[in-house]
Amino acid sequence: MSFANEEVEADRVFDDALDVSTRVGLPSQMLEARSARAINLARGGTEPAAARRMAHEAMTALDRFGVDMKAAAQEASGAAAADPREGARLLSESAVEWSTRSRPLDAARAELLAAWRLRQAAPGAAADALTVGAERAEALGIRPLAAEAKRLIGSVEKGGAPASK
């Protein structure tokens, strides 16, 4: 299955999760589904406006429902932010918030997304953060996330950006 097909399938799953959580009145799950969809759209890179709209909806849900899921809304906003440095800042804050909630897997994902956002604005910092993130993901047993981080390190390095040690 190609990445494009995986992206479409993931969007369908996130839409289904959003629909179900909205219908049955699960605001935390609804916010997480909106956040996941925003992140998926941002990572796909083909619909930045849709990613920002979905991230905005996550922030609005946070305000409207008073849901204690600030980390998820920040993660979506960071992934979809127009400015990569601002996106990385929001994602780093999200990682800290996830950590305070004893959700290390979510924190690791947010840290790696922050590095992903930095890859064009600060390639050296991105490569360093991706290296640390890959090690953390491996330690947590999240091999697919570690593999993705390593793949991104390679793409940052091939783009001519020095990967400082």
Q: How can the largest sheet be summarized?
A: none
How many individual β-strands?
0
What is the radius of gyration computed over CA atoms, rounded to a whole number of angstroms? 15 Å
Write the H/E string, N to C: HHHHHHHH
Please explain how this structure is put together.
The chain is built from eight helices and no strands. Residues 160-165 have low confidence and may be disordered. It folds into two domains: 1-82, no CATH class; 104-160, no CATH class. With 165 residues, the chain is an all-alpha fold. The termini are far apart. It is globular and about 45 Å long. Helix 1 (3-23) runs antiparallel to helix 2 (27-44) and helix 2 runs antiparallel to helix 3.
Secondary structure elements and pairings:
Blueprint: H1 3-23, H2 27-44, H3 48-65, H4 70-80, H5 84-100, H6 104-121, H7 123-140, H8 143-158
Helix pairs in contact: 1-2, 2-3, 2-4, 3-4, 4-5, 5-6, 6-7, 6-8, 7-8
